[in-house]
Amino acid sequence: MKSSYKILAAILAATLASYALAQSSTLTRAAEMRTDKLAGSSVVSQLAVGSAVQVLSLEGGWAQVQAGGKSGWVRASSLALSAGASAASGLSAGREAKGNTALTLGVRSLGSRSNRHALIIGIGKYGEPSIPQLPGAHIDRESATQMAQAMQVPASNITYLQDDQATADGIRAALAALNERVLDGDRVFIHYSGHGTRYMDKAAGGCVEALLAYEGTTNATIPNKEMATLLAPITNKTDKLFVMYDACHSGGIISNASTVRTRGIFNKNDEGAIRPKFAAISEECSKPVNIKTRNLMVEAVEQKALPQDIVHISSSRNDEVSFDDEQKGGLATEFMRDCMLRDAKDLDKSGSISIEEIKQCAQTKINDRMAGDPLYKAHNISLTGNADFVPAWFSQAAIAATAPAVPVVALVPTPTPPTPQATSVVASEPAAIATPAPVAVVTSLTGEQALKRLFEQRDGKRNVTLTTNKTQLKIGQDTLDFSVKSDKAGYVYVALAGSDNESLYVLFPNDLDKNNRIEAGQTLALPRANWKVRAQGPAGTDQLLVIVSAGPRDLTALAKNKAGPFTASLNNADGRAELGALLTNSEAGSTAACSNPAARKANPHCSDAFGAAMLRVDEIK
């Protein structure tokens, strides 16, 4: 069985993947290193002919490089590149320019898991000659693949429909086949790149939004209502369903003269010709003004789906046009990929990067890409559903040379007689968290954000309830008591963000009590008699997160940090990311025992799904 240590080591290995594949090169002509792969981006530094650089990735005619202690983007044509890099990387990060090689982006995530699935649909050439082509759709296939891999989807669990495979019936059949493969607690990513449309449906009482299948006719559409129906059985099983449409449903006032343009004539940031991702098959519904529509999330909720368990990204609002770049693919897909894999920031310092933070990063890039364009404004990425969804756990924390401050324990065990299974803890001497390595800590932050972000990853279909007689504990006198009840059997984990605004612990299971199994409908009273927890101060609020997971978690990697019998997590981005990665992934999920559907169906431990509840307790003087 793969150890927790090896799993966590994969995070660092994947983070450094792009550096391991870095290729040394020199500049064949002077170049400006820019902050982003746009001609209009600000200049980081001027590089002279012959300057030595490390090439990290090549995307759409641009190269990400390091030079002189700085990193940025230069035109790939200014570099002297040797052959062989593509073979080493295994996956192109975008369209390869003639004579150039392409390095994959460094994917900062855990290893693949058999309970993750993806369906990637791309239509660049339509059967109906009047439907404009979208040459960037084949690049979106590669970008979506990289996003799926970052979300731990194994290559064997990715299904592709491209061009003439993506007929209306082909899409329906692929969704039915996906439903057959998906089991309770699995996770699914669906990506569509192609034309969207809108047409009059008298039965619906107005215009409806739809994806345009390969045939390119009114009879070959998948409207949102039908898509929600097709997805309903999948949604009923998945812990998270993430759907992304790189298409638009509004034609606005686009004329044939402005649908395609050559690069750089109107906007210096243009790489290739850009095309709107909308096909007008109904004149009366092609303009967005005052038209009421029902998006996929609305239709899914009507099918009894829980917004907690669904994430829907659309490349534009329902009254906007989104674009396809023939060399880079859809702008939304390109920049969502870049932000998921590399550029998004942990804005709330929770130790994870949410889909909302990825969307904000991508929107900034779209705004920069379309800045100064005389014909079009930037389209706005639309996010509905669970905005706190974390597609891939990784940390962007910087390593510092100084050790963190040592927080004290806010709640400590009351002395109990020694037992054969464990030893007592002295209550008058609060334990300190051991520091195994020098890591930067921002002490002004709390662990509360990390626990709330973990809570939002729960499967809304798994119900966990917490009850307590006391929500206020008198310091030095009262003990913590609460009960857990779950509608599904599983394993209980209790995490605490302490009232000192620094402490972050796993209270249960612990060295005194490792029996964390709970049966469906059972009420579990915690803490048990041999590890009663007393309020120790300071005055403030403790936040408790209780998780009931389908399969056990392996937390041994956290054992290096102890606070008495409890496991502690460092209150920094690395520590929070580590805690999140371990609590959201089952111990068995990446093992051979869960490598095929039959094995997963027979073993509930293969599921990563969990229910969760939070409890606030105030410590008072």
Distance between the termini: 48 Å
Main β-sheet description: 8 strands, mixed
- Can you identify the CATH class of the largest domain? Alpha Beta
Percent helix, as a range, is 10-25%
Shape: globular
Number of strands: 33
User: How many structural units, i.e. domains?
Assistant: 3
Count the DSSP helices.
12
Radius of gyration: 26 Å
CATH topology of the largest domain: Rossmann fold
Low-confidence stretches: 1-21, 83-109, 251-266, 288-292, 395-410, 413-445
Strand fraction equals: 25-35%
User: Roughly what is the average pLDDT, rounded to an integer?
Assistant: 77
Provide the CATH architecture of the largest domain. 3-Layer(aba) Sandwich
